[in-house]
Design a protein that fits this description.
Length: about 270
């Protein structure tokens, strides 16, 4: 049996802005279908990691390959940005947004077959269960519905890798759960690797295979149990941190900054 080609392979990576090194000697291999959560305090470099994968930031050292090929490859990556409301005056419908995701993939080629384009749009819409509101103006949709449209847009290009930058921010718990569930369903159905930046691990806790936790240039990568424990977080934060499991949630106690990073803090 041959091992599958990694969806993402980052080796010996270093990212630096001026004198500030965000991370170095960073190795991360993400398998097809794997769900990786990226956690850490404000400014620890989570978004910069996504931007590097998107090809917007250039590594100072090391390499990245996507789907077995050297370098980043935007055509194989779907990107879900932070939730922010669409302007009510924008005359776009959800279907138009998803269509833009489909056209992005076919850039330079063009959809000769309108039927195939429509099928790709409909498939992405179905993947986020959005038929009921896909023809309404985007500005009139709820935050959760808008975010589902953004997930559909990112999935429309049938990506190998799905990068999500705090897609649950400002959604209520029910919508957080819904969006997280839809992303999980897709990665299972299509073996799409997911890299999911989040301040709050609990909504994705059932789905996370591994955690990347960044703090001030230090990082730890491993399963949730390997990373989200008192010893590891105390070492990363260089202060006493306790991680408790309360029912099916993780609660981080003792690091002031932890209030808004990996889990709820007391
Ligand atoms: N293009 C850039 N030029 C210079 N510094 C940058 C640039 N992009 C990001 N930074 C700096 O790198 C650090 C990490 O930023 P980044 O946005 O990756 O953090 P983050 O962990 O995503 O934070 P947050 O949780 O607040 O979104 C910050 O101090 C930021 O100011």
């Amino acid at each position: 049996m041959t091992a599958s080609v990694p969806a993402i392979d980052i080796r010996g990576a270093r990212l630096r802005f001026g004198d500030r090194v965000l991370w170095s000697d960073f190795d991360l291999t993400v398998a097809p279908g794997e769900f990786v959560a990226v956690l850490g305090p404000n400014g620890s470099g989570k978004t910069s990691l996504l931007r590097t994968l998107l090809g917007q930031y250039r590594l100072d050292a090391g390499t990245i390959s996507i789907d077995g090929r050297n370098g980043t490859d935007r055509s194989k990556i779907g990107y879900v940005p932070q939730q922010r409301p669409h302007d009510e005056g924008v005359p776009l419908r959800g279907r138009d947004l998803v269509g833009m995701g489909v056209d992005g993939r076919a850039w330079g080629v063009g959809w000769r077959n309108r039927k195939a384009r429509k099928a790709a749009v409909d498939l992405a819409i179905d993947q986020v269960d959005a038929r009921a509101f896909v023809d309404a103006p985007l500005g009139l949709l709820s935050g959760g519905e808008q975010q589902r449209m953004r997930v559909a847009q990112a999935l429309a290009s049938d990506p190998v890798v799905l990068l999500c930058d705090e897609p649950l921010l400002s959604l209520d718990p029910a919508n957080q759960a819904r969006v997280a569930q839809l992303i999980d369903r897709r990665r299972r159905a299509a073996a799409t690797a997911v890299v999911f930046v989040t301040h709050e691990i609990n909504p994705v806790l059932p789905y996370v295979d591994r955690v990347v936790y960044l703090v001030d240039g230090r990082f730890r990568i491993g399963t949730t149990d390997e990373v989200m424990n008192s010893a590891v977080l105390s070492e990363l934060y260089r202060t006493k941190v306790d991680v408790l499991r309360v029912r099916d949630r993780l609660v981080v106690v003792g690091a002031d900054e932890a209030a808004c990073h990996g889990a709820e803090a007391l």
